[in-house]
Design goal:
The complex is a heterodimer of chains A (about 280) and B (about 280). In chain A, about 40% of the residues lie in helices and about 20% in strands. Chain A has 9 helices and 10 strands. Chain B is globular and about 80 Å long. Classes of the chains: A alpha/beta (about 280), B mainly alpha (about 280). At the A-B interface, strand 6 and helix 4 of A face helix 7 and helix 8 of B.
Chain lengths: ~280, ~280
């Protein structure tokens, strides 16, 4: 009985991201551009955290620091109890426990879809090619992606590409999925299909998601919490728990609670957008 | 589905028909143009001095069984393949090193850039002095023709790799070598293929000129351009000195065909090694 409890606890702990007063200054530390200024944030395990803020506010800088693509100037980031970066270690090591899905997608165009999907586990030597392919076929089938295994990414639509990329990410069995406006370039109809399929994937895999967007509706529909960032420098302005029941489908968009949440966030976001706009005016 | 599968072949036959019609029409105009003077007494400028295609075809037909003529093809192809092959073998690693290593770039690139604008043909006298045999001089000049183009394309391709590919590969646990082998190399491949096809074209231009200049030396053969110097460029030059204008044209068209065959081969090879680039 005790072990079961411990296991549950361990699983519950899996994938908490804690950002503690992160600072990122580009250029000279004294008079450089401050992109992120003492930003603190916690993403609970197995939940979807939506990070909303005006363009260029420094959200992506934060994501890059978690992924280990860029360093932090000060502050720390933890994944569960492990320090990814912090004092004495400005840059995290990229790792398969945190996989990024980029805005325009980064499937390798020279590999077929299934070769893309098996890349991680095969490179890490976790699975042999044959086993990896079996697993990939199963996961692609679950995501409704059967029949395109041997096509190249250039032969499928951008929406389907994004879904393949999420399957590729999940094949690494990551604790955290880092999504940087993955659906920005998609039309709104495709977007709604993508949203429902992402939620389904998250229900199935219980994975922590750090999702950057500036689409409020997307944020509230997908999120367990919505974090609104200030315009540059980036700091958390408002944290909102989304109490809409799971599983969600697109009908809740018209519900009263959804509209209330939209109103609640709209003002904060609009204020920051105006600030960012004025900042841009002054600089231009 | 069936009709769709047949579409490429239908397009193919239509394309072939168009090509044949265009070539035939061009030949007819050429024939009329060059015979116009015989018929009316008023010779047309430029085209009037060119022998008509009917006479060229006749001369060509007589050459079909000529050993020297095919020897010219063989020698030119050998030089092109040798020079081009050496340019690929040396140019791809050289370009990769330039693109990926800053120190090497800063050291080697200035020298490379000074040498690059020198036309391969300006190397002819120096090459004759440098290399012990005439064959090596020609191969060297051919090599230069393709080398610069290939290097520049490899550098450009390897430098414009999308950082996201490398970042994702890193996150998924790829080592430095794996990133090079599985990400950098395949994403540079399209540029390598472009560099190769352009370089192949330059190689043909250069080999012919080099043969005309250095192939007409003491080692020249007789008659229809066999000999040890030889090659299609020498074939043309020899026909010119021999006064056979039809053979000049035969030589020119032969080079056109040889170049076309070479580029098609490169394209076919490119489609094979980079199937994701094939138009859908």
């Amino acid at each position: 009985m005790q072990t079961t409890l411990d296991q549950t606890k361990a699983r519950a702990l899996r994938g908490t991201i804690r950002i503690e007063s992160a600072v990122k200054v580009y250029g000279n530390p004294q008079n450089g551009v401050v992109a992120v200024d003492h930003c603190s944030l916690e993403c609970p395990p197995g939940e979807i955290s939506m990070v909303v803020g005006p363009s260029g506010c420094g959200k992506t800088t934060l994501l890059n620091a978690i992924a280990g693509f860029h360093s932090l100037t000060s502050g720390a980031i933890y994944l569960d109890d492990e320090m990814l970066c912090g004092p004495g270690k400005p840059k995290a090591d990229p790792g398969s426990d945190r996989i990024v899905v980029f805005q325009n997608g980064a499937l390798f165009p020279w590999k077929t879809n299934i070769e893309n999907v098996i890349f991680g586990p095969v490179m890490q030597g976790k699975l042999a090619v044959k086993e990896a392919k079996d697993k990939a076929r199963t996961m692609m089938a679950e995501a409704g992606l059967s029949g395109i295994e041997n096509d190249y990414p250039g032969q499928i639509s951008s929406g389907v590409r994004r879904r393949v990329e999420i399957v590729r990410a999940l094949m690494n069995d990551p604790k955290v999925l880092l999504l940087d406006e993955p659906y920005r370039a998609l039309d709104s109809l495709t977007k709604s299909v993508m949203h429902e399929s992402l939620l389904e994937t998250c229900y199935r895999n219980r994975i922590t998601v750090f999702f950057i967007t500036h689409d409020l509706e997307e944020a509230i529909f997908l999120g367990d919490q919505v974090v609104i960032m200030t315009s540059r420098p980036c700091r958390t302005k408002k944290l909102l728990k989304i109490d809409l029941p799971h599983p969600r489908d697109y009908s809740i968009v018209t519900s009263r609670r959804f509209r209330e949440l939209m109103d609640e966030t709209m003002d904060a976001v609009h204020e920051e957008a105006m600030k960012a706009f004025e900042l841009g005016e002054r600089e231009g | 589905m069936f009709a769709l599968a047949q579409l490429p072949t239908m397009l193919g036959t239509r394309a072939t028909a168009r090509a044949i019609i265009a070539i035939t029409l061009a030949a007819v105009f050429w024939e009329i143009g060059s015979r116009f003077g015989d018929w009316t007494g008023a010779r047309l400028p430029f085209i009037g001095v060119v022998p008509p295609p009917s006479r060229v075809l006749l001369v060509w037909y007589n050459l079909i069984g000529d050993y020297g003529y095919w020897q010219s093809w063989y020698l030119s192809f050998l030089r092109v393949l040798g020079g081009f092959g050496a340019a690929m073998v040396l140019g791809i690693p050289f370009g990769m090193a330039l693109a990926l290593n800053r120190t090497f770039y800063q050291t080697a690139f200035p020298t490379f850039e000074v040498l690059r604008p020198i036309p391969p043909l300006a190397w002819v006298p120096a090459a004759i002095l440098f290399w012990p045999t005439q064959e090596l001089s020609i191969a060297f000049i051919t090599f230069l023709g393709a080398f610069y183009t290939i290097v520049i394309n490899v550098v450009g391709g390897a430098r414009s790799i999308d950082a996201r590919y490398i970042q994702s590969a890193n996150a998924m646990g790829a080592s430095r070598w794996t990133v090079f082998r599985r990400v950098v190399l395949p994403s540079t491949l399209p540029s390598i293929i472009v560099g190769a096809s352009v370089g192949m074209g330059v190689t043909w231009e250069v080999v012919v000129a080099a043969e005309m200049i250095s192939g007409g030396g003491s080692s020249m053969g007789s008659g229809t351009g066999g000999g040890t110097g030889g090659g299609l460029g020498f074939f043309i030059w020899n026909s010119y000195t021999g006064g056979s204008y039809e053979q000049i044209i035969v030589g020119m068209i032969s080079i056109g065909i040889a170049g076309y065959i070479s580029s098609s081969a490169i394209r076919a090879l490119g489609d094979r090694i980079a199937p994701w680039l094939k138009p859908r």
